[in-house]
């Protein structure tokens, strides 16, 4: 009878094989040990960058049957009985054309109720039911039926401004075919996004409104957004919350789910995937509808941050999540723009000539032509020909003809328009049209200068203002403002409130093509009417500076009551307007040039009393704490006060606060260009902004500002903290790693290291500064190690941190931070070297750092986790129950410091789950294992699809499920384990630094399943995965031997199914290569010796070889491995086991009685050293002892018989 050695139960998903007793070698060799060792290198707890995404899949729609008729665009008829409202010229105000007999939901009057925020005055709208974009469509009874607290929560979300004042209405049946296509796509396509694109002026917004109405009537609308309104500083987080609010108002049954999200995930700076899951996906799923809901978004490319949001769509499965998106814009996205987002592109075609003719007929019917005849059919046809499908051109033509402001008859204006020989194919046509409208409304040059001034102001206006307030702000008579507003009415496509009482930003009233015309530098001079944004900021900023003393001095309280809206506007926007009047700071650092700009003098003359009054007003308006006491601020000069306040604001937890802080700091720099501290803090503010926006431009601005501060300002400022500024330059340089591939090291990171090395060398006699630089340099080295895995980088990082610690004696405030950093570096090195000395040192340093960070310190939870993780790793290495118990206790304490809603809670859950699984290895308690699985599942819920850390939860849960499978034999656990690892591998595509670990993890899960199924298909896939992993560790890679070993195990596993000698022969070849990579002195040499010995002995048996060369070499290798595992080495009993087994084989082949005697001796020693935690191994060793003894008896009897016969 032959010998086997099943492996002990392990908490890691290493395979277990059901091998018959007649097998000739120990079953798993060192498979389990190798797999467990590999899992110990998973780096759980580190934070990977977002994975790259996969290619866009754009399957075509099923064949679409258009609307009845030969031409879906042309077969629409004029309804002569349709009611229209006549516009009477010479009236003070014009009524809005109504082209549809359906409810006119778009022109409902609304009132703006201003809500003060930090950087932009956001308009909180009191909406009217049955308006489309940004309106409350929900059943009011259902909304009122929800709890009061849930309604309050819903009302706390950002509000969509009412955009019902769009002046052009949908022309019945003008886009029937296009709407049918969209509805067809919704019902049949599996894609997530329908992107409808067309040039400006094609009627996209009007089409979007009609489509939204259709979707609403079918109960398929989740939300409808018109993003032309979106403030510049609205980020994706705000937009997600905005969508949630619209969902709740349209579908009141979703309000409780939305309220739960607000309660649990209402904090700042949450990952976008978490916000999307909690605020959109779950509320929609809570409705339990049988069909997906549509989020319709118009004017997508008028919101600058839309790419960041759309890239999150890779997390969405439309069939599962019951949500789809229809997006309208001018841009045509490519596969590179949004990889991994399934998308269908639909070019919205131009309206036909017949449709545009009908459009003109319908609108011209509303004009009082006086005694003149109505336009001839020939003239209408000419206009339609010129429009060439552009609805915006047709609207502006009609609006100009109908405008009672122009001193010309409708007939005259019509004829002038027809005189142009241009067609829409000429890019100058719209410019000519817009220029002509201005010239007709304002024929005098002096008037046009006032118009330009007016336009410059509304182009930078951040929120609506009453006409009187706007006039006061820009120094213009209210009647002049009113006159210009009416004169430009012909160019408006939107009338937001319908009352004419408020002045709106240009983007809220003009079509995009109009705003582009005013801001274009390429329009021919004959038709140009350019508007300068910087001059607009100078105009509005100048008004702010002029009004600041009147409004914010202590004696201004009485005036405040009548100007509250203007007061709030100036309080929140004046720094941004004044800063915007200067050229880009990075483009021109010359302070002498700044003096020549319009607002520089008024800014310098701003008294500290005025700024102090404004500061107090700002504190009460936005509830920002002032960094210093009031008495100190009263003595501060204006520049210093702006620096102090800007620094405080830039430390805020939202982009609005940071944007205002950046503006204040920029003004401080303009006032104090030779003060290094202002430049320093401005650079920091831009870096903080980059953390929120992930904007490379913000990082590059921070680098440029810090570089200028180091190279220029610090040289002339005698009080400059030059080394501190240089360190911040290094930090800004390091921050570029956010924007590079995981496998690449940026030039900026190398420069940060170079700066650190130079500083350390130059500051030998300044211990405090040198210590700061050493810590900074150590961080840079570890950052580079995380990218390159270079042991040299890590070694230097440790050395630099140790030097810094020597300069931070007991009692120093920074000692704990340095110790914590150094502890982490030692833990990283243990992952490479498996040196217990590194682990002991990591634990010691963490314990000391923890003493210095008692309860209440922000970093205490981080230190608790890292100490606990190191204890957990030591408990595995030394089989220490005490370490394992302490690890669990510390992780529980850290979890208490991160309650529900905390951004780091998922990591705390995962870390505790791993600690419980580790304790299970020491004391097999099913309760620990069950809790571990539950905690991993909870962490995974906090990391929905698309979350940058989801992959860590997937693989950790997979490990725990595979471990539970070994205990409960539940097939469902091992199947889910494989599924989770497959998903994790998708999140680490080709080129990802950690892809190799995901390949390995999936192979291990498949091996676990193979232990049950003996499936050749699983075995083949395991080998394929390990071959791919080996290519990622080419010759020269320090871990190539590990990958060779994993592939050997897979090949030997397949041999067990196929009995193919080719697998064993390749195993021997790979084992020899691995052994050559682990020369004498290598910590893993014993593993390679043992593996090669096993492959040789298996080949000897399978090939039925007569030569004993392989067997002799196998025994020699086992003896060498045994020497490398002396005394109390935890694997010594395995080497003795292997040696005994191979000696048994040779004894049977040669009938050598000495070999079987030695085999029995080795087996007995293995039995003595077998740990209590491996009861199965002990049983097999005992069985082997019996087998060996019987063979010895048989061999001895045969020997005696032969002797007697002789």
TrEMBL record:
Under which name does UniProt file this protein?
A: Nephrocystin 3-like N-terminal domain-containing protein
KW Lyase (keyword) present: no
Chain intervals for the UniProt region annotation (Disordered): 57-78
Keywords assigned by UniProt, alphabetized: Repeat
Magnesium listed as a keyword: no
SUPFAM superfamilies for the chain? P-loop containing nucleoside triphosphate hydrolases, TPR-like
Q: Which SMART domains match?
A: TPR
Locate the transmembrane regions by residue number. Answer: none
- CDD domains named in the record: RecA-like_superfamily (cd01120)
Q: Give residue ranges for domain Nephrocystin 3-like N-terminal.
A: 184-330
């Amino acid at each position: 009878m032959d010998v086997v050695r099943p492996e002990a139960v392990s908490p890691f998903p290493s395979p277990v094989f059901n091998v018959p007793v007649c097998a000739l070698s120990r079953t798993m060799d060192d498979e389990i040990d190798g797999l467990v060792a590999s899992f110990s290198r998973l780096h759980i707890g580190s934070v990977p960058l977002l994975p790259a995404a996969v290619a866009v899949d754009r399957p075509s729609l099923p064949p679409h049957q258009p609307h009845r008729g030969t031409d879906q665009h042309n077969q629409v008829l004029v309804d002569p009985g349709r009611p229209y409202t006549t516009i009477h010229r010479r009236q003070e105000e014009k009524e809005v054309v109504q082209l549809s007999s359906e409810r006119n939901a778009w022109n409902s009057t609304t009132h703006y109720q201003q809500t003060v925020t930090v950087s932009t005055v956001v308009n909180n709208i009191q909406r009217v039911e049955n308006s489309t974009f940004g309106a409350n469509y929900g059943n009011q009874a259902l909304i009122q039926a929800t709890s009061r607290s849930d309604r309050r929560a819903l009302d706390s979300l950002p509000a969509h401004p009412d955009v019902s004042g769009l002046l052009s209405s949908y022309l019945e049946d003008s886009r029937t075919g296009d709407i049918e296509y969209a509805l067809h796509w919704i019902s049949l396509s599996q894609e997530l996004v329908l992107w409808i694109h067309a040039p400006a002026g094609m009627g996209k917004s009007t089409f979007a409104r009609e489509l939204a109405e259709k979707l609403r009537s079918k109960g398929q609308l989740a939300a409808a957004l018109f993003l032309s309104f979106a403030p510049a500083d609205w980020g994706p987080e705000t937009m997600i919350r905005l969508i949630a609010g619209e969902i709740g108002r349209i579908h009141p049954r979703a309000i409780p789910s939305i309220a739960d999200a607000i309660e649990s995930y209402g904090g700042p700076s949450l990952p976008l995937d978490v916000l999307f899951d909690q605020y959109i996906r779950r509320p929609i799923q809570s409705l339990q509808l049988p069909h997906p809901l549509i989020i319709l978004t118009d004017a997508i490319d008028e919101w600058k941050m839309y790419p960041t949001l759309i890239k999150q769509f890779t997390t969405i499965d439309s069939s599962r999540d019951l949500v789809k998106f229809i997006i309208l814009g001018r841009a045509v996205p490519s596969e590179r723009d949004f990889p991994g987002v399934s998308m269908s592109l639909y070019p919205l075609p131009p309206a036909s000539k017949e449709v545009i003719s009908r459009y003109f007929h319908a609108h011209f019917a509303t004009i009082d032509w006086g005694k003149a005849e109505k336009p001839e059919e020939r003239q209408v046809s000419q206009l339609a020909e010129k429009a060439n499908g552009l609805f915006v051109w047709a609207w502006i033509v009609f609006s100009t003809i109908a405008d009672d402001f122009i001193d010309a008859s409708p007939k005259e204006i019509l004829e002038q328009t027809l005189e142009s020989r241009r067609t829409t194919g000429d890019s100058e046509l719209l410019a000519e049209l817009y220029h002509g409208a201005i010239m007709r409304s304002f024929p005098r040059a002096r008037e046009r200068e006032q118009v330009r001034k007016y336009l410059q102001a509304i182009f930078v206006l951040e929120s609506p203002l009453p006409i009187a307030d706007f006039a006061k702000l820009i120094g213009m008579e209210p009647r002049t403002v009113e006159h210009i507003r009416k004169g430009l009415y012909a160019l408006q496509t939107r009338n937001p409130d319908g009352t004419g009482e408020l002045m709106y930003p240009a983007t809220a009233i003009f079509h995009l093509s109009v705003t582009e015309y005013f801001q274009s530098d390429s329009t021919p001079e004959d038709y140009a009417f350019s508007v300068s944004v910087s001059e607009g900021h100078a105009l509005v900023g100048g008004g702010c500076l002029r009004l600041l003393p009147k409004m914010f001095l202590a004696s201004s309280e009485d005036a405040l009551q009548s100007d509250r809206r203007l007061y709030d506007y100036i309080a929140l926007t004046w720094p941004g307007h004044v800063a915007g009047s200067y050229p880009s700071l990075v483009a021109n650092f010359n302070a002498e040039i700044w003096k020549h700009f319009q607002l520089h003098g008024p800014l310098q003359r701003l008294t500290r009393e005025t700024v102090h009054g404004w500061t107090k007003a700002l504190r009460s308006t936005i509830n920002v704490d002032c960094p210093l006491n009031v008495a100190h601020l009263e003595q501060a000069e204006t520049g210093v006060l702006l620096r102090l306040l800007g620094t405080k604001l830039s430390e805020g937890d939202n982009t609005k606060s940071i944007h205002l802080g950046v503006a204040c700091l920029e003004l401080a720099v303009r006032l104090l260009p030779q003060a290094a501290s202002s430049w320093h803090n401005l650079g920091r503010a831009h870096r903080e902004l980059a953390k929120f926006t992930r904007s490379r431009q913000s990082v590059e601005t921070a680098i440029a500002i810090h570089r200028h501060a180091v190279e220029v300002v610090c040289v002339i400022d005698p009080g400059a903290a030059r080394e501190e500024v240089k360190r911040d330059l290094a930090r800004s340089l390091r921050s570029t790693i956010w924007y590079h591939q995981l496998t690449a090291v940026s030039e900026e990171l190398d420069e940060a290291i170079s700066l650190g090395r130079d500083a350390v060398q130059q500051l030998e006699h300044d211990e405090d500064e040198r210590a700061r630089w050493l810590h900074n340099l150590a961080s840079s080295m570890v950052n580079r190690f995380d990218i390159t895995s270079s042991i040299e980088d890590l070694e230097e990082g440790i050395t630099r941190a140790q030097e810094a610690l020597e300069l931070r004696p007991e009692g120093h405030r920074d000692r704990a931070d340095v110790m914590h950093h150094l502890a982490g570096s030692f833990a990283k090195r243990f992952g490479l070297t498996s040196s217990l000395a590194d682990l002991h040192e990591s634990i010691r340093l963490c314990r000391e750092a923890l003493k210095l960070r008692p309860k209440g310190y922000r970093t205490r939870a981080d230190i608790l986790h890292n100490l606990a993780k190191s204890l957990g790793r030591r408990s595995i290495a030394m089989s220490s129950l005490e370490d394992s118990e302490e690890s669990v206790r510390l992780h529980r304490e850290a979890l208490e410091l991160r309650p529900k809603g905390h951004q780091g809670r998922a990591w705390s859950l995962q870390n505790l789950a791993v600690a419980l699984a580790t304790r299970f290895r020491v004391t097999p308690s099913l309760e620990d294992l069950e809790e571990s699985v539950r905690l991993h599942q909870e962490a995974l819920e906090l990391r929905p699809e698309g979350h940058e850390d989801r992959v860590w939860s997937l693989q950790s849960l997979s490990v725990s499920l595979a471990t539970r499978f070994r205990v409960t034999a539940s097939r469902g656990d091992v199947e889910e384990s494989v599924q989770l690892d497959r998903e994790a591998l998708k999140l680490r595509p080709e080129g990802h630094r950690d892809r190799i670990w995901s390949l390995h993890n999936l192979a291990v899960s498949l091996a676990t399943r193979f232990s049950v199924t003996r499936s050749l298909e699983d075995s083949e896939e395991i080998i394929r995965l390990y071959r791919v992993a080996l290519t990622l560790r080419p010759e020269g890679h320090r871990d190539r031997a590990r990958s060779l070993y994993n592939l050997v195990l897979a090949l030997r596993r397949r041999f067990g199914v196929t009995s193919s000698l080719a697998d064993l022969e390749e195993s021997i070849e790979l084992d020899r290569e691995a052994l050559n990579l682990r020369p004498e002195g290598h910590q893993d040499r014993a593993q390679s010796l043992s593996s090669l010995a096993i492959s040789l002995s298996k080949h000897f048996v399978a090939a039925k070889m007569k030569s004993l060369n392989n067997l002799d070499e196998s025994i020699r290798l086992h003896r060498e491995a045994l020497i490398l595992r002396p005394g109390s080495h935890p694997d010594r009993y395995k080497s003795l086991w292997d040696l005994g087994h191979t000696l048994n084989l040779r004894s049977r082949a040669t009938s050598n009685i000495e070999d079987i005697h030695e085999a029995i001796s080795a087996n007995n020693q293995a039995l003595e050293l077998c740990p209590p935690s491996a009861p199965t191994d002990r049983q097999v060793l005992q069985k082997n002892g019996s087998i060996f003894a019987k063979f010895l008896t048989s061999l001895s009897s045969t020997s005696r018989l032969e002797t007697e016969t002789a």
